[in-house]
Design goal:
- With about 325 residues, the protein is α+β, with helices and mostly antiparallel strands.
- The chain folds into 2 domains: about 5-115, D-amino Acid Aminotransferase, Chain A, domain 1; about 125-305, Alpha-Beta Barrel (D-amino Acid Aminotransferase, Chain A, domain 2).
- The protein has helices at about 25-30, 45-60, 70-80, 145-160, 200-215, 290-305; strands spanning about 5, 10, 30-40, 40-45, 85-95, 110-115, 125-130, 165-170, 170-175, 180-185, 185-190, 215-220, 220-225, 230-235, 240-250, 280.
- The strands form 2 sheets. Strands 7, 8, 9, 10, 11, 12, 13, 14, 15 and 16 form a 10-stranded mixed β-sheet that branches.
- Strand 14 and strand 15 (about 240-250) form a beta hairpin.
- The radius of gyration is 20 Å and the shape is globular.
- Bound molecules: pyridoxal-5'-phosphate.
- Pyridoxal-5'-phosphate (PLP) binds near residues 236 and 238.
- Pyridoxal-5'-phosphate binds next to helix 5 and strand 14.
């Protein structure tokens, strides 16, 4: 079955799915979004995604066009029409369309929703590169403005890595599309869910799994200087689930990762050349089959229970 699209109140043929040229999502990135993973035909942790959508909409003062019940029905209907058991549902709510003018227009928000079949990446480990967290100061809002994230991911890809690990004022915040976790002596560390990270739904679920497993958790900012003391690093996210990191690269000339503020220089391109990047952190053999793998396994088992209509919380 091809991907499914829903635009402004109607399911449409995917190839015919178009948004108005003056949609504010298109003009300004004036909107917010969510992505949910579908396992066995069922959207995983959907109530938590809807809760965060409500927070994002409230943050940017867009009226939530649907009740939770309506969202659940709409997403369920989209998945049903797609006939996909393994998929992602992406949906966004923009401030609607209107003549291009910065101040908010009158009018209703626009909803666009896409269901696509999803095949997980075969890679069960990742390499990361350190990059400056040059995003705006409200990254906790899941807005459509992802240019810094997109540039960071592409920079990582060109350096042969799967993910960028952001550093803000000497602190490791999160990945370009994932949350970051660190393990030292069996204790989990992750940045608190404040304004400097997106409070991942997977992060929330992994906190729950850690509690179930009796793994101690410390939600506090981790400094780059602490990295050398960490036994394990991993990322979490809706599509990557739990992804252990084997090495972290950094450009030894780019001092952003120690600096308290971003350098004032204007690079010619934001897609940095990382050909001089060196290994800053590497996982040693002793840590293999550690906490990351334990949580990865617990996550997979929870998904299996979910596929079988069992409770996961
Ligand atoms: C910047 C950022 N952090 C964290 C995440 C992980 O969030 P979730 O677990 O809800 O997918 C994402 C997911 O897109 C993200 O873009």
């Amino acid at each position: 079955m091809p991907a499914i699209a829903y635009v402004n109140g109607q399911f449409v043929d995917f190839a015919e799915a178009v948004v108005p040229a003056e949609d504010r999502g298109h003009l300004f990135g004036d909107g917010v979004y969510e992505v949910v993973r579908v396992y066995g035909g069922r959207p995983f942790l959907l109530p938590w995604h809807l809760e965060r959508l409500g927070q994002s909409l409230a943050a940017v003062d867009i009226v939530n066009p649907h009740s939770e019940h309506e969202w659940v029905a709409l997403i369920g209907e989209a998945v049903r029409r797609s006939q996909e058991a393994e998929a992602t549902v992406y949906w966004q709510v923009t401030r609607g369309a209107g003549p291009r003018s910065h101040a908010f227009p009158a009018g209703a928000p626009h909803v666009t929703l896409i269901v696509r079949p999803f095949t997980p990446s075969p890679a069960s480990q990742a390499t990361a590169v350190l990059l400056p967290d040059e995003r705006w100061s409200h990254v906790w809002v899941k807005t459509l403005n992802l240019l810094p994230n997109v540039i960071a991911k592409e920079t990582a890809r060109r350096a042969g890595a799967e993910e960028a690990l952001f550093v803000r004022a000497g602190v490791l915040t999160e990945g370009s599309s994932s949350n970051a976790w660190f393990v030292r002596d069996g204790t989990l560390f992750t940045h608190p869910a404040d304004r400097h990270i997106l409070a991942g739904v997977t992060r929330r679920f992994v906190l729950h799994l850690a509690q179930q497993a009796g793994i101690p958790v410390c939600e506090r900012p981790v400094g780059v200087a602490e990295l050398s003391f960490m036994d394990e690093v991993f990322f979490t996210g809706t599509t990557v689930e739990v992804l252990p990191v084997t090495r972290i690269l950094a450009d030894p000339d780019a001092l952003f990762w120690q600096a308290a503020a971003l350098p004032a220089d204007r690079p010619a391109t934001l897609v940095r050349d990382l050909s001089r990047a060196r290994v800053l952190w590497e996982r040693t053999g002793a840590a293999v089959s550690g906490v990351a793998e334990q949580l990865q396994k617990m996550f997979t088992q929870a998904v299996e229970r979910f596929r079988n209509y069992e409770d996961v919380l």
